[in-house]
Amino acid sequence: MTSAGRTGGVRTATREIGGVVVLAVRGEIDIATAEEVRGPLVDLAGRAPGGGVVVADLAEVGFFSSAGIEALLVAHERLRDSGGALHVVTAPIVRRALVAVGLDRALDLYDSLDEALPASRESG
Questions:
Q1: Higher pLDDT residue, 81 or 61?
Q2: Which long-range contacts (CB under 8 A, 24 or more apart) does 67-70 make?
């Protein structure tokens, strides 16, 4: 687990589930913490095999600013360009922000991690 090391910040943890890489994020994504999410997401997107899926699990995010939206878009574009996909598990505040700017039509949004991992459900 990688920790932001500040109160009110963000913490991230990466794990693999059924061949899908999951970046779990907890805390607040704002201008001060967005790089701590964008960096790992872009890195994971760059390492995902063609057609691979990366899940951004934002179910435990309590604040989500435009800097978070930008972090998701950068990772989404990198994965899309390589034939992969970004699946986003949303907390209500994250979903509201993404819907407000119309990104619910561009990004694959899910209510739970189980829903975002269709391959693991099929094989298990």
A1: 61
A2: 67/29, 67/30, 67/31, 67/33, 67/34, 68/29, 68/30, 68/34, 68/37, 68/94, 68/97, 69/97, 69/98, 69/101, 69/103, 70/34, 70/38
